[in-house]
Design goal:
Mean pLDDT: 88
Order of helices and strands: HH
Strand content: under 5%
Number of strands: 0
Number of helices: 2
Low-confidence stretches: none
Oligomer: single chain
Length: 129
């Protein structure tokens, strides 16, 4: 005799069939979900792809502009250095010229000009001017 806990072959077969139906249903659900995910991925790629491409182009353009600005900054720094050297050289030249002017005896220069004027005045009168 069979106890209540023991199942008949028919009951076991029915349970296996029920389990197989559940597996098939879950398999179909999984397949549908995978298809939906693939479709969503495709839509996302088609929608976001061009935007990502534009963003990459913008990044490349900004990168090029940044590189150009860095070169301009370097050129500006070199130009400022050249101007600084020119100012220093000019300052030294002005200082030397000032020292030379300070060395000139203005009293003697005025006397020499007066003497030259005294010599030229009679010559001017002689030639009638």
């Amino acid at each position: 005799m069979k106890s209540d806990h023991e199942l008949t072959d028919r009951q076991i077969l029915e349970k296996q069939m029920e389990y197989s139906r559940k597996q098939a249903r879950y398999g179909k659900i999984t397949c549908v979900l995978a298809g939906v995910m693939a479709l969503l991925l495709l839509v996302f790629t088609l929608m976001v792809g061009p935007a990502l491409n534009r963003a990459a182009d913008s990044i490349a353009e900004v990168s090029g502009q940044l590189e150009e600005l860095q070169l301009q900054d370097l050129e500006l720094a070199n130009t400022l250095k050249d101007i600084d050297e020119f100012v220093i050289t000019s300052q030294e030249s002005v200082q030397k010229a000032t020292e030379k002017l300070d060395a000139v005896d203005l009293e003697k220069l005025n006397d020499a000009i007066e003497t030259l004027r005294n010599v030229i005045e009679p010559l001017r009168r002689l030639f009638g001017e």
